[in-house]
Amino acid sequence: MMITTRLCFLRRLIPLLLVFFFTLASLTVEAFTGTYGINYGRIANNIPSPDKVVTLLRAAKIKNVRIYDADHSVLKAFSGTGLEIVISIPNEYLKDMSANEDRALNWVKQNVQPFLPETHICGIAIGNEVLGGSDYGLWSALLGAAKNVYNAVKKLNLDGIIQITTAHSQAVFSNSFPPSSCKFGDNVAQYMKPLLEFFSQIGSPFCLNAYPFLAYMSDPGNIDINYALFLSTEGIYDPKTDLHYDNMLDAQIDAAYAALEDAGYKDMEVIVTETGWASRGDDNEKAATVNNAQTYNYNLRKRLAKKKGTPLRPKNVLKAYIFALFNENLKWGPTSERNYGLFKPDGSISYDIGFQGLQSSSACSPFSTIKEHGARGSYYYGHHISVAIVSAVTLLLFLQ
Question: Which residues cross the membrane (predicted)?
Answer without folding.
Answer: 379-399
